[in-house]
Amino acid sequence: MSKKVHVQTRINGEEVEFLCEPRQSLLEVLRDILGLTGSKEGCNNGNCGACSVILDGVLVDSCLVLGVEVASKEVTTIEGLAGPNGLHPLQQKFLENAALQCGICTPGFIVASKALLDKNPHPTEHEVRYWLAGNLCRCTGYDKIIRAVLDTAQSMGGKA
Amino acid sequence: MSTTTKDYKVIGTRPIRHDGADKVTGRAIYGADVQMTGLLHGKILRSPHAHARIRSIDTTKALALPGVKAVVTGQDLPLIADKVEDLGEGAVNLRFLSNNVLAHEKVLYKGHAVAAVAATDPHTAEEALSLIDVDYEILPPVLDVREAMKEATLLLHNDLTTKELGKNTDKVSNIASHIQFKQGDLEKGFKEADIVIEREFTTATVHQGYIEPHNATALWNTDGQITVWCSTQGAFAVQKQLSEILRLPVSKIRVIPAEIGGGFGGKINVYLEPVAALLSRKTGHPVKILMNRAEVFEGTGPTPASYIRVKIGATRGGRITAAQAYLAYEAGAYPGSPINAGCMCMFAPYRLENVQIDGYDVVVNKPKTSAYRAPGATNAALGAETVIDEICEQLSIDPLQFRMINGAKEGDRRPDGPVFPRVGYLETVQAAMEHEHYKTPLEGPNRGRGVASGFWFNGGFQSSATINVNADGTVALVEGSVDIGGTRASLAMQAAEVLCISAEDVRPIVADTHSVGYNDVTGGSRTAFASGWAAYEAAQNVKKQMVERAAKIWEVSPEEVGFENGVFRTTKNGGKQLTFKEVAAQLTRTGGPVVGSATVMPRGVGGAFATHIVDLEVDPETGKVQILRYTAVQDAGTAVHPSYVEGQMQGGVVQGIGWALNEEYFYTDKGQMANASFLDYRMPTSLDLPMIDTVIVEVPNPGHPFGVRGVGEVPIVPPPAAIANAIYRAVGVRLRDLPMSPGRVLQAMLDKKGH
After folding, report:
1. How many CB pairs under 8 A join A and B?
2. Structure confidence at residue B1 (pLDDT)
3. Average pLDDT over residues B106-110
4. B654/A142 Cβ within 8 A
5. pTM to 2 decimal places
6. Alpha-carbon distance B473 to nearest alpha carbon in chain A (angstroms)
7. What 3-state class would DSSP assign to B469?
8. What is the C-alpha to C-alpha distance for residues B479 and B467, in angstroms, rounded to an integer?
9. B13, B16, B24, best to mutate vs chain A, most A CBs in 10 Å
10. Average pLDDT over residues A115-122
11. Spatial separation of the C-alpha atoms in residues B367 and B348, rounded to whole Å
12. Is A138's CB within 8 Å of B651's CB?
């Protein structure tokens, strides 16, 4: 076991510090060290998006980022979306549109969709599908997920 | 669209699911999220060879690695005699199940579990695997179903004999069983035909592809009680399997189901649970084991590759006179492919006088197959529905019209024997014919439209439920059906309908094996039907007790109290009424708590039919198929929560699309899967698909109080055939081998051009 590294970072708007081995991915750090189990492991090699987080404003697969890489950066996970005023509009629209069945891919899709709407508040259906192609869902066939994102964009009226 | 005459208050509405907040915030606890004090981490050593004898296993170096606390092998499992159990999606031989969990004497597929390590962290456990020395005597692998069936081919098992038409024989073979369904006179039927078409098909090994890998955490406590947390389709099924594999009474085993990230039939058989339990016993700690994605592909239960022959005869007028099929399914390393179900479903949409279906269950050196959503039926439908399409083309009959002529209805006998009760097949065909999709011409080069039908018989089996009435008139519903796709809501809605309260006022809990009565698995399209029925009966029991309480309050007899629209009424004493809430507020003074419970094992299962329409375009330079438009029509009986019925339809369709166009296990000639990752095992992404339109036809099932039919499985049955039919109409080639990947489509087009 190699010597652990001390990392200071910001997660969901809070200052956070942790110790991790250099080989541990950000996903592992979030889940096993920080107890933030909302990000899920589906494949551990960047092909399913279940571990999606936003790193300094960029959508990434946290299984492809090392824990030590996030020093002095801003990380947003699924746990950071709802607030004292309740669910984020995306979360609410996912529920209203029944855009989840087993729910395992849902945190990844919601984070990825937030990254999309932050960048492009009025995406077309094709733009949504293109952006979310890095997130796999096996239960829904994507139909209701796409509708939920478009519904959110419309209801937020460009205010992500 | 709805043909029901009922006026439901809750059924048919779309409330937000009760577990919604947890699932969209990442709070829901799936199996991998389970944490506890003193947790150790396990990893599994798997065979690199597809077929080999295990000469010896040396674990000394692994045990010596700092951080390693225990190692187990197949030697740590008790020996089990042959015993066949029904786990809810097919029969399982428990000896084979045990040998599959940890190999016994032989490894039979690449990925077969051989040993396992528990250590203080997962990385140490993984390092320890490389320190376990296994001495293998490598044997040639058997990798193709037709090869496996030949006399001269190497046997996987020296003690596997063929069960021939239901009777055990002495013939040692890779053919585990031969089944047959037969009616009428096949020869006579083919003689009557004006046209006979016979075709051969192959399909490749395909995985359920759930995004959540398998997981299990087990604590073998100092008092001998075992607690298991896992993502499973059935806590009681896990309990039963553990009991058999570990040779322990079920009372010593408590299984707590975590939320589950997809199953589709693949999370019914145990893989990790017994191993985690053994490691826990050896270490005195709880042990958690997680599979990685490659292990899921190589070490769990995909669906069979198959070889199928279909022969159908019809008159010029479009009436089927005879149908014959030969199906050989790869069971994988141990017997038990879904050959029965495939044979049962394949011609079910059609009224047939003369039919014979022969099915073969065959072992090969690949992972032991498991159920995958309507197991066996999709392979078979590929053959049946495309041969029918060819017949329609030759006879110049519209393929939906042909299905109206030959479609099965109430009173017709299925090829496997049962007579149909009220079913809605013709209604799905009618709805497809009248749909705007079908009426809109498809324009453009290399574009084609295809249709196909499908059937799944659905399941009943056992369910139990309990309802506790709260003082504020809300209720808790304790049920035992793991919620894979929104069934918490469906069950709560059925209870709410009986009690005339809102769906939100019923709080459903999925309970563990100690806390709720026996429940069979969430699978077999049985949950909304059977567990919903249990919730219905428990609610009826509550209603009866509440009537008695109202009677007590008014000092009349219960027979003089009625309950309608949420209100208890009596005509006595000048006419009185109380709402459900008002009676609930008086439980203590009328006798104490009200708890209603019920168990069911319903018989009135209603089968599900589907008819699908697909438009697609083929790229003439690459052979890539783009789905342009898809409409799925299905008889749901009564759609309890229409959004989740639509969801089942859409999800099944998309799995079928993946199966049709891209998904397959690529095997090397050494029997190793070359594409064990989501990159190269290519499942559909959002960019591959349009919206999936759904039409829910409702022909209520007379066998269920609300008319419910299972909906989850039939949607995966028609897509590959519908797509094959559409590709033909697009570019004039008929593909009969799945997947119809771009290379194959392109080759077929080139072959047609004469290259």
Report:
1. 177
2. 36
3. 98
4. yes
5. 0.97
6. 26
7. strand
8. 9
9. B24
10. 97
11. 29
12. yes
Alpha-carbon distance of B465 to B457, in angstroms, equals: 24
Q: What is the mean pLDDT of residues B257-281?
A: 98
* Alpha carbon distances (Å) from B71 to B2, B128, B166, B304, B382: 59, 9, 42, 32, 46
What is the C-alpha separation between B704 and B11, in angstroms, rounded? 14
Model confidence pLDDT, tens digit, residues B556-574: 999 999 999 999 999 887 7
* Candidates B17, B25, B373, B696, partner chain A, best to mutate (most A CBs within 10 A): B25
B683 interaction partners in chain A (CB closer than 8 Å)? 136, 138
Q: Which residue is it, tokens 């709260």?
A: B470
Q: Which two tokens stand for residue B327?
A: 């199906």
Tokens 């037709």 belong to: B146
Q: What is the pLDDT of residue B90?
A: 63
Q: A146 and B686 in contact by Cβ < 8 A?
A: yes
Residue of B nearest to A132 (CA): B686
A71 touching chain B per CB within 8 A: no
Assess: ipTM above 0.90.
Answer: yes
A104: chain B residues, CB-CB within 8 Å: 30, 210-212, 261-262
Interface check for B687 against chain A (CB to CB < 8 A): the answer is yes
Q: Give yes or no for B37 touching A (CB within 8 A).
A: no
Asked if the C-beta of B289 comes within 8 angstroms of chain A's C-beta atoms, the answer is no
Nearest CA in chain B to A77: B26
d(CA B585, CA B568): 14
Tell me which chain B residues have a C-beta less than 8 angstroms from the C-beta of A143: 650, 689, 691-692
Cα dihedral sign for B697, B700, B703, B708?
Answer: positive
Residue whose pair of structure tokens reads 């040692």 in the numeric block: B172
- State whether residue A101 is helix, strand or coil: coil
pLDDT in tens, B371-407: 999 999 999 999 999 999 999 999 999 999 999 999 9
Tokens standing for residue B503: 């769906």
pLDDT at B495 over 80: yes
**pLDDT at res. B317:** 97
pLDDT tens readout for residues B132-186: 999 999 999 999 999 999 999 999 999 999 999 999 999 999 999 999 999 999 9
* Interatomic CA distance for residues B520 and B458, integer angstroms: 13
pLDDT of res. B755: 67
The string of pLDDT tens digits covering residues B667-721 is: 999 999 999 999 999 999 999 999 999 999 999 999 999 999 999 999 999 999 9
